[in-house]
Each structure stands twice: as structure tokens, then as C-alpha cells.
């Protein structure tokens, strides 16, 4: 679905003929410095074909743009840059990270954004940018920066949410309660792997943009991309640290299970002793010797019971003292 | 066995004399731009010698082509490129990855494909290519691309199948059932190692092709190889992620075993208590004291049995409550 | 809050008009070689804006300086260097590493230091430097060196404190006492990760300063930065070693738990044997056979008791001897 | 001991004066293109000194050649190349990898081979080469290639033998039998470390030879060294894979131990239940109540025994059903 | 303490005025090619200051030389090289690696050696060198080589001693005895980390010396440094291998603990069965049924005892057969 389609002149949105968000008309002729921005969401093959024809896009890039399971990358086809960005967002209800995809075609005088799935809302980014004519004046590269910045900001939010999750896991692992943390840790590791797959492949190209190793990026814009690269670096460090902490937390979880088993075993043994020792006493007074004076005492029975209770009490005290119960 | 042998002129198959798939005749003289494509399956030494003589192939490459246990590589002997590709495919019945091998000799005006074992069917690739004269016009490099693309597509399918297997293992590890996941995880790790051995050595040469660092690859073809390199990269990331997840799953499996042992131990202990406590009571009333009033009660016996049952019932309730049974 | 503001001429502090630490006046005109040093602590947005205007700082850097959760970095905006340093210090009471942040803007003729949180006291550094006019003569770079040196010295102190903590953990792990070292090890690993995040990103830029790959660093100053780089390297090696040792200590802790469980199990079993064998003897003399001569002995009962005690004593001796009790 | 000593002219062995394998005569004057090949086995210091004087070898290299515990390396002393190769071979009887050493001095017109210990038999290599005058015509480099090829072939054989050993270990780990695989895995890991130490240091120099980065290696010979480098690469990949598989197998072994312990514990508990429940019944009928009707039944005793057997039988059935026995 | 002070002319020691090992006189004027060698042990600040003034050493280097906790490094201050070497030696009595430090200042015409702590005795090195005038003729670089060679030889000896320790640990881990190997393994890992910290930072500078990337090192000396670099490489490989083997040995140790626990558990259970089954029999004949024929047999008691002993014997035989006892 074509979501929006506009021409920008000196950073200001110019109404297109009929201002119809569909692409029913041919490509808009641009003055130098102007550019057209077309936004598509969950594109049909027809829409992609139309766009490809309008802006003369490379078939391989168009094919990739139609598929929502690409890995993040930045590629150059002739004059056109093609970016695949993974969008990530954190769903609080499910404590889960979800992924979408944004594809960008950045030409000299046009921008095509293709969004798959939910996640970062490009309409908001566009509205924000339209408020800042000074930024938009830098042309398509400014749009690319704005979107990358938006996407990476979202990564940082996901990173922060995962940090909280890891804190929770940590608390749970070290709490005295009997918790089944291994599923939770595993799920978090899976999500971290997901984030890593989104973040890592972007670091290199963003660093290249930041270093100005791209003809259409001027020094001013490069500085902005340095900011993006820096944030990406921060996210990837957070992610690596969390991954390591989770591994350590898992080991601690294993240790805790062992310790608990040990404690249970000691508790069980102590409990057993409380029963077995009186049983021995009962056994003794169940013997059939002719001469067992206690048996004939008036309070023999009471004595035996007292002996049993006493022995158990002593054991109980002893185990309490030595921490087994 | 020589499977097919044809001359291509302007991307179109030209019937050879007698159109006989055997190589009974000398090498076909080619117009500039034409090339000959010979396909061999499980070659005999004689066939290899014949081919080597026809196209003046390097003896070391021919020796490698005759051996089906090569590692993937791309080598250059004079004007001729020699590729060893591992073919992978997933056998659903056995949940196993199987491997074959394809060797390619790519010359200025010829292509020789040598297939070992099953796997990717080159006859299909050839038929597909023959439909697309425009691609075939690019000559031997187009054939090389088509085959690499085919092989790598198969890798992606294997990667996807392994992802499903890992999902199954995951489910099994975290299911309450008592499963023996370690064999399964081990087997999967083995298969992942197999895939890695096929994929990794290809990444570097494909990247070189993609970067156009090869004289006989023009810009257009390089773009296509970039696609192949990108897919290889994706497969290798999937494989790495799966390997890590399997390691974590294994740890979770170990944790689960420990937890189960702990639970079993507590269940056993609770069960034991249900028997041992009544035994103590029985022991008490088996004592031979002269004065044990209960022994002379009319309902003493019933009282004792009730005591036993009662004690067990209390214990049962207690253990149920505290989650030990 | 603006903490201090002074002009340095030939390495000597020159009282500013009114010597008022607030920035109520415009930027001080400098002779060549002179520089102004403004120190800010926990800046408000207004203060940052004022400073940014005075020294014409880049908005992205100013934005970073206002945020106390940056990663360490060295960036260049036109003629101005922008440094983010993490300050670390060890709080003995809590055995914890705390972090603050210092941002530096180093221009040709000015230094702006922005401190967030506690930690390294820059006022002290300034006083020290003011004693050493010869060093201050080198200008802003000397200030940058002095602060980096100060911060990295603090890292070394933290490293040493962590080494002591690891020694304590080690002792605890290998002590015969039943200790819960996993929490402690986990916390230490977290702190080490914190230190690593402060140290690692600085290594590369410091090495670059040390190699003189920066126009405003003369050879003499480069030598000093080599010292800083060397200390950073030492800290990061200490940190890596500690991390590895902690992992090994954790494994040893796990082993210890297993060994303890084993010892407990043997102790429990030996203890059980001391009760179960007399119970068997009691059971035997509780049998109701008509002809059991011991039952009619005068000292039969004493004999039985002696047998029980004797059996237990033998077992006790045996278990002591074989190390089970 | 000097094993062989010959002059090669145009790739053909020329009998030396007296054809005496000892070095009793001075160095043989060579026509251009000719070279002398001296083979030594377990050299004495005198022999080394003699050789060193004859061919003007560097003292450091000669010292290394006299010591059989060098690491593999390729070094250049003036015009002379000095190679240290580790020879590996697999002793089937002991399932062990043994190591020897070959040192090569390769000059413009001479080859000195110094062999320590058993392993690769250079006499065979020499005989093989002497059959192939065409190869020998390439001079000392051809000899170097031939020996490297021989040695690396042996590595591949060792790699294959280790693969079989790992397969055996794998089978043993996953077999239901109670096996002590940890010693076996440890030994294999040790042997793999041995192989790695022989293989890894050679990879880089062989790659350099293969890339022709050595003046005395012509293109044709470089191609052959590419073959050697490729085989080395294959061995080192096999070795890495095996090492990883062994680690995983070890983990699986640990898991198996835990599972077995769990199964044993359940078996033991079930077995105990079969005895403890009848004991309780016996205890009940051992009570001394006045009114216990069963005691006076004619078949009371039989009833009690039947109850015991019945209870055990029910338990047995139950445990069989639930897989505990 | 200044230990020795001499002038070397053409590789021969020249008595200084008064030949007094103290530095009471000014610096000795040197002919070209001559050099002065001052040796200091555990220097006082005054001695360092004196030396620094005499040879015009850089204050940062002098500061480092006064501190015995530097990391190994090679630095250049103007014309002077400054080396920090860690000396290692193995104390047999304690099975421990101890560390000292040597600092070298290598100028065009002087050498200053500063030794901290025990370890490598430089007086011996000096005596050895003085015997070899030919080596000493190469000037300060020869001294540097001789000391590095000496220090690295000591590393190799430490490496060999650690190899023996690992062999002992290995034997202990796989011996049937119940050993507490985790402390030992941990200590060894700590020592290996120590060695690594001494060895690793030297590899790169020694390789640079060996490659002749240092103006004052001629080709002949470079060859000697190649020898040093090679030995360093060997030590670091040995160390890495040992570290890996220790990790594997630790895992094997863990496995052994588990196996032992399992065996103990089975032994305990078997032992318990030997007591519990007779107890059941005793319980049976302790029942009070009116009609229990065995009770009235003349040899009933003997029969019961025989039954008990028989049952135990059968169990004993059974457990022996199945390896539980």
C-alpha cells in the first residue's frame, strides 16, 4: 500500500498534482535540489514493479525489498543506495522483542521507503522531518539519516528493556525461591541473538558513512552518521555484556540447583533420623528377652515414649544447630 | 558418466554433431562469445583424462575433481577457474544433512561441471538457464553464477530445516517430559559443523567475485555474485546463531536433568516418609511393656491402624502442600 | 553548576575580571598561547547552552555532554576535540565499583570540563596543575593529559581493589566452610564488565594520541600519552585475567559443591548404618521363635544391647577409618 | 648417521666418487642446475658440524637442527631456507599419535635433510622422486615440495585416524553401557593439540610459498605448494571440528552421567520400596494388641505373607509401568 | 645498589679508574664503538636519579624503572630504548612460579640494567658475555640480545616445569584415588596467567627486532632476535596448550566427581539392602500370629538366621556381580 508520496523543494513539502497518495501519475520532474519521497507499507508486487520502473531500481534490490526476511545491509546499485534495516521493538505484555523491516532506496533526487510489518512508524518520522526544513534541505541523505537515527533509537530502547529483563532474571536466580530460570534465560538469549543480528551488520556501513567514505555524504551529514554509529556501538556493547551476564547467571542458576539439592538431601536425612532413631528404640523394647527390667516398670511405657521423644528432640536440636534443618 | 554436452551461441543451445552426449568427438571450435558446456556425473578416470586433454586442464585440478572429499575452494590455474562446491540437502526422513560435491572448470570458452553424489541437479539448472538466453549470453561466468546461486539456495533451505530442528529440540528440552535430548543436540551440532565446512570457505572468494576483483567478471555479473555472497553470509549467521542456541539449550538440558533429579529425590523421600512413620507406630505397639493401656483397649488395634493412616494422610497433605509430591 | 573559570597565560593562572566563577561575562580574549579553562559540574541545560555559544561547540557534542550515560569516546568536531571519560571509583563499604562521567571539550585556546556525578575531583587536578606551570605551558593538551592520567590512575586503583576482591573470593571458594560464592562471583563479574566498558573504548584513541597521530599533540606530549595508554593496557590485562580467574573459581566452586554433596551423602549413609544395624539386631531378638536360647539367658538383654552398641562401634570405627565420617 | 648422499644432474642421480654414503670427501662441485642432496638421520654433533662447514649453514639453524624439540617454522638465513617440520604418524596398537621431526636446509644447489626419530621415511621419498626426473629438474625446491607433500599427506592420514577415534568415542558416549569416556576424550584432546601444534605454524609459510612470495619458487612450483597449503588447511579444519565435537561429546558424557545417576536413584528407591512396605506390614502384625482378629485366623500368617507379596507385586508393577525399574 | 660498572672497548672489558663498582665519578668518555654497562639491583631513588642524569634518560622511563610492577614493554625515548622484562623462575619446593623484573636502558654507547627482586642473575650473563668478545663487539644491542635470550630461556624452563605439573595433575585427575584437584588446577591456571602476562607483550616487539624494523639492529643481530622471538612463540604455544588441557582436565575432574558420587550411591544402596532385607525377615518372624509353624520348629531360630544370612549372601553375590559393590 502506498502510504504517502510528496515532493520536497528547499526542505518544504510541495503538494503534488491532486495530492493523491497513490502513484497514478508518472514521476514528478524535479528541480535540482528537490526530491520526491514515496512511502510504501507491505508492498504488493505491482506496487514494487511500478516504483522500480519510476525510479529505475535494480531488479535484485527490488526483489530483496519484496521479501521481509533479509539481513540488514547497505548496498550500492549504480547511483542508488539500497538499505535494509531491521526494526526492533519491545512488547511489554509478552516481554518479547519483535522485528520488522524497512527498505530504503536513496537516489539523487528521490527516496523510497518500504516498510514490512509493524514497528517504527515512518509517518511520524516524516512529520517530524517536515517540521525541520533546515534538515530536509540536505536532501535524501537527511531522510536516510533521520530514519536510521529513529531505528537505532528504537534499538537502544530495546537494549534498555532487555537490561531490565536481565536484572529481573538475576534477582530471580539469586532469590531463595525455587525458580525455573533456565527457560527465561534461554528466551532472553534468543532475543539477544535477534538484536545482534539486526545491529551487527549495520555497524560497518554506518562507520563508513560516519567516516565520509561515500561521495553523496557531506561533512555535516557525516557528523550525524557518527552519532548513529556511536549509538549502534553502544547497543552492541550492551548486548554483548548482557549475553555474558546471562551466561554467568545461568552458571549461577546451575550452582543454585546443586546447592538446593544438597540442602534438600540434608533436610531429608535429618527428617529421616527423627523417625529412624525412635524406631530403633521401639525395636529394642519389642525384643522378647525374659529379663528386661524396663518392661515391668509401671511407667516403662511412658519411659520408652519419653526416650523416643527425647532422642528425636536431641536430634532436632542438633540438626537445627548444624543447619541441616 | 558424461551427462550432457552442448555448444551455446549467443545464449542459445546449438546441437552438436550427432548431438550425442558422449564426448566421442574432439573439442568443438568456438566463435568468439560461444562456449561449450560439458556435464559429468561421478566421473571415471578415463572421462576426466579425456576432458583434461580437451580443455587443457591442470593435472592438480583434475586430480582434485576426481576426489569427492575436497574442501570448498576457488582456485585459478592460468586462464581457468576451478571451483569446488559442497552441495548440501536435507533428508526429511532422517532429519539429516547429506553432502555431495560439484567441481567446476570455468574457461574463457568452456564450462565443465563434475558432480559427485546426489544433491543439486545440474540438469535442471541447465534447463532453466537455457530458457534465459539473455543470461547465458554473459558466457561461462553466467553459468558459474547460476550454479553457485542454486547451491547456495540449497544451503538456505538446509539452514531453514536446521532452524526447525533446533525449534523442536528447544521444545523438547523445555517440555515437562523426560527426554534424552543430548544425542539429538549432538547430532545437530555435527550437522551444523558440516554446513559450516561447506559455507565458510566460499565466503571469501564469493566476496571477491562480488567486489569485481576478477578480470573476467563484469560489473553486471559482480552484482549477481554480491547476491550470492549476501546469501552465504546469511546462512553462516543463521548457522552461528543456531550453534550458540544449541549450546545454551544443552546447558538448559543439563539444568533440567538436575532439577528433575532434585524433584525425584524429594518425591522419593516423601514417599518413604509415608511408610516409615507408620512403621514407627507399629514398632511402638510391638513393644512388650507390661503396662501399655492401648494394647488392652477393645478398639486398640483399630486405633493404631487409624493412627498410622492418619499420620500418613497428614504427611501426604503436608508434602502435597509443599510441592514435594 | 559552574565550578571554576580561569585564564592561563604562560602556564600561570590569571585572575579574570571580578574572578567570579560564574560565566556572567563574554568569552575572554586570549593572547596566542593562552587558554581559558571552564569547569562545570552536573550542568543545567542553560549552562551548556551558554558554554556552547561561548566556544562555538557542535550541538551533537553538547547534547552528549548533557547526558551522563555516554560510552567513552574521543571525537573531533572541526578544531575541537570532544572526550567522554568514565570515572570509576571503588567504594570500600559496599565492595562496589561506582561510575561517573567527565566530558572534555579541548579547543585551541580553551578547555571545558563537564563532570557528572561523583568520582575524580577535577578541582584537585586543577590545583595540582597550577603548581606545575611548566606543564600548563603546553596548553589545553596538557590539561587533557592531566585529566586522562588522573582518571586512568583511578582505574588502576579500582583494578587493584578488584584483585583483592578476587583474592577474597578465591580464599572463600577453597575454604572448607560452606560458602555461597556464586552471588559474589556474579557481582564481581558485573563490576568487571563495568570497568571493561570504561577502559576498552579509550585504548584505541589513547594509542593514537601516543603515536602522535593528532596534529595538536607534540612529541613531548605524545610521550606522556604513551604512559596513559600503557596504564590503560595494564588495567585491561588485569581485568581480563581477573575475569578468567573468576570463571575458573566459579568452576571450582561448582566442583566444591559436588564434592560436598558427595561427602554429605557418605556421612549421612554412615550415620544411617549406625542406626539400621542395631535395628536389625533388635528385630532378630523380637522374633517369636519358641527356641531362642539367648532370650532366656540372665544377661540376654545386656548381651543384645552390647551387641548393638558393639556393632555400631565397629561400624563407627570402620567409617572413621575409611573417611566417611 | 649419514644415510644417503648424491648429486643430481638434470633430475638424474649421478654416482658420487666411490658412491659412499659417508661424507668423507669435500663438497661436490656442481654445474649450474645440479644439486647435491645429503640425508642424515639422528645426527651427531660432528656430522652437523661437517655439514654446516660444507654448505656454510648458519650456526643458529644448525643448533636448531640438532635439537628435536623445535616448533615447525620456515626461516631464511641468507640464501638458505631452513624448515622445521613435525612428522606425525598414528600408531594403531596404542591409538596414539607419535611425532618426529624433519629439518631441511634448502640452498641454491643443495638440500640437506635431517630426520629425528621415526615417522615419514625420506628414503622412500627420495626413491619416488628419482623415478620422476621431470620433477627433480626443478631442483631443490622440488625436493622441498616433495617432502612437504609427504609430511602433510601423513597429517591427513592422522586426521582421518583421529576422526575414526572420535566416532568411536561418540558411539561409546551414546551407548547405554557405563563407560569411562573422560580419559579417552582427554587423551584425544591432547593428541589433537599435538597435531595442531604441528600443523598451524606451517600454514602461513606454505600459503606464502603458494602465493609465490619467494624468489626461488617459480609459478609452476607455487601451484604445487598451493596444493600443500590446501591440504594443511583441510587438516586444520578437520582438527578444529573434531576438537569442538569432542567438547560437545564431553558435555553429553556429563549429561549421561547425571541421567544415569538419576536412573540409578530411581531404581534404588523402587527397590527399597519393595522391602520397606512388607516390613511395615510385618510391623503391624507384630503389634501386641489384645484384639487383633487376623492374628487368630487359621490362615492369618499366610494372609500376612500374601499381603506382603501382594503389596510388593503391586509396587513392582507400578514401578515397571512408570519406568522406575 | 650499583652492582657493576664497566667500559667495553672492542668487546673487551676495560678497567675503569679505580675500578670501583660505585658511580662516584662522572660518565666515562667513550671512543666510537665503545660502550659503558652499568648494572643496578633494587635501585634507590638516588641511584636512579644519578643514572638518569649521567645518561640523560627520560623521566617517565626512570619512573617506570623505579617501580617493580610494570608490564613488559619496549619503548623508545629519543635515541634510547627502554625495555621492561618480567623474569620468571620456578621454585621447586613450592611448585610455584615467581616473578622479578629487569629494566634495560639501551643507548648508542651505554647499557643500564636495573634488576628488581631475584631471578635471572645478570652478573652471570655479563661474565658469559665477557668471554665472547666477538659478540660484545656488536655493542649495546648484543647485551640486549644476551639478556633477552637469558630471560626467555628461563621462560622455557618455567614452561617445561609447568608441563610437568600439568602431567602430575592429569595423573591425579585420572587416578582412582579421591583427590582434590580443583585447588591445584586453579593454582596452575593462575601461574599460567602470570607467565602469559610476562610473555605476550614481548612477542610483538621481539618480532619487530627480528624483522630488523629498528635502525640500530643490523641483519646479523636481527637473526639472533629471530631466535628469541621463536622461543617466545614456543613458550606462548606451550602455555596456551597447557591452559586448554587444564580446562579439559578440570571438566574430567568434574565428571570424575559425578561418577564417584554415583558409585558411592550404588555402594551405599547395596550396603543398605544387605541390612534391610534381613530386617524384613526378622519383622516377619516377629509377627504374633497364632499359627506360624516355623516359630515352633526346633531349629526355627537357626532357620531364620540362616534365611537372613542367606538372603544377604545372595544379595552380596548379586551386587558384586553387577558391580555395585
UniProtKB/TrEMBL annotation, chains A, B, C, D, E:
InterPro entries linked: CorA_cytoplasmic_dom, CorA_TM1_TM2, Mg/Co-transport_prot_CorA, MgTranspt_CorA/ZnTranspt_ZntB
Gene Ontology cellular component list: plasma membrane
CDD domains: MtCorA-like
Transmembrane segments: 268-287, 299-319
Main location class: membrane
Domain of life assignment: Bacteria
Pfam family name, one: CorA
Annotated GO MF terms: cobalt ion binding; cobalt ion transmembrane transporter activity; magnesium ion binding; magnesium ion transmembrane transporter activity
Subcellular location: Cell membrane; Membrane
Keyword entries, A-Z: Cell membrane, Ion transport, Magnesium, Membrane, Transmembrane, Transmembrane helix, Transport
Membrane topology: Multi-pass membrane protein
Catalytic activity: Mg(2+)(in) = Mg(2+)(out)
Biological function: Mediates influx of magnesium ions. Alternates between open and closed states. Activated by low cytoplasmic Mg(2+) levels. Inactive when cytoplasmic Mg(2+) levels are high.
Protein family: Belongs to the CorA metal ion transporter (MIT) (TC 1.A.35) family.
Protein name as catalogued: Magnesium transport protein CorA
Gene of this entry: corA
